[in-house]
Amino acid sequence: MNSRKLAVMATLVALSTATNYAMISLYNVKLMDLIVFVGGFCFGPFVGASIGITSWMVYGAVNPSGFSFPIWLATMLAEATYGVAGAFVYKSLNLKERNEFEDERGVSSVSFGILGMLLTFLYDLVTNIVFGFVSGWNILFSVVFGFVPFGLIHMISNAFFFGLGCVPAIKAISNVVGGEGFGVFEK
Description:
- It contains 7 helices and no strands.
- By secondary structure, the protein is mainly alpha-helical.
């Protein structure tokens, strides 16, 4: 990993963590998932997963809601899936040029919004199961209680953020970093 890629990764981790603290009063409305997904889309699964794990490593260790080691591990690993999914989406689109991506913005925005909602459903399912286990609650109760209203808020906000934010964020990163050596669209 070269220093430029490492600097972008560190910037995305810092942005992800800082936005979580900045949005602390909006429970389950965060930009972290979008940032991790875009990191994976632009730089591949290892970097995307690393952004997610590192972001939660910092945020979870100094979490205003308290600290629980099993929940901390679950959130780190579940967050990594956003980065891996971003890399998988990039690979599956088989893009050759930026123009191909830009021409399908409407379809891409809707698709990214739906994908953000589905990934968030999986994230919340995993973290609610771990929460239920740790707290001694019935797992089914913790999943249902976690989804209504908290999971719904999380899924709807991520659908909105992914739908509106993926295309511009990916374009911005490709314009700033660019080049095939970085796993972003070739210039």
